[in-house]
Amino acid sequence: MEGAEAEEQEWAAVARDLLALGYEGCPGAASPGTSCPDFRALCARLAAELATLGALEREREEGTEALSAGDGPGAEEEFLRQLAGLLRELHCPDRELCGGDCAASLREPDARLRLLRFLCSEVQAAHLLRLRSRLDPNPEPSCGEGAEEGSGMVQELILTLQALGLPKPTRGTPACQLLQDLHAKISELLPSLPPESLQPLLSLPLDTPRWEALASLSQSLRDQYGCRRCLLLKRLDLTTSAFHWSDRAEAQGEAMKAVLIPIREALTSESDVSIAHVLAARADLSRLVPATSKTARRRTCCAVNKVLMGSVPDRGGRPNELEAPMPSWQSRREDGGGRKAGHQCWGRKKKKK
Q1: DSSP E strand boundaries for the chain
Q2: How far apart are CA 64 and CA 58, in angstroms?
Q3: How far, in Å, CA of 175 to CA of 144, rounded?
Q4: Separation of alpha carbons 301 and 293, rounded Å
Q5: How far is the CA of 156 from the CAs of 124, 152, 279, in angstroms?
Q6: pLDDT single digits (tens) 254-304
Q7: Are 220 and 208 in contact (CB under 8 A)?
């Protein structure tokens, strides 16, 4: 009973989405599926709206219908053939719908529900993109030479292109074309990597509670390391300011500021590590190398490490070697100049040699 109620609620949600888009008369779970002309007509109307909104490139090029509802002996087969091409063009993530036997999958009410839900979500997304294009005169960002060099996204793309050995894109290159080139180059280089070299560090699936826990942990670590970075930056400021106290710094003060200020302005207390870095991390990142290992010392070893300190004088200061002061007793003098007999006088006892 609970499964049936949940399925009815999902169909009701799809019906509300269709009603919000201006469609009435959702076929429901009891419809026979692709053999029903009403179901095919509804899918064809959704596909036609996607083509009108510019979400289907094939529709603009060929000028043909994305889906034809039809009505005849071969209408269902033609509909299924066109539906398979439509789902591939929209990059549908549902493997059952995009599989070989789409007709068998759509006989199940759950598969028809997923199909309608996917088409509704694509229409809603197309409406949002159309609204964004009206508000933004340049909806398609370019990543060529005219893009801002200082933006973080462009810098990441430039580093990615350099790592893959790709040339810098020309002015006006659309982002979609650049991403396609990146995908083709990465697909070409993947077979040359050793097996299991791209195993993710985080291999467990993340549901909603785990996402919330991961976000909370990330924010807590960002706050903690933000405080640490503030402390280190304050120490850096005090250390650099101490160099200006010397007499020599009076003549070299401007030159020192010209070198230090650009470096200091680039250092912020906010960390740029986010959850995206955790998801992109690979398993080899957890391979910890000791700082004193031979591999690490090849890069950190310098001439200063080879200087040995000689013998230094013992400055003491160890609390366990200090003795507490003991009181000393003095007798009363006859001339009255001394203290009263039995008066306690605190004195420092000489340290034993």
Answers
A1: 327-329, 344-346
A2: 8
A3: 9
A4: 11
A5: 30, 6, 17
A6: 888 888 888 988 888 888 888 888 888 888 777 776 777 776 677 677 777
A7: no
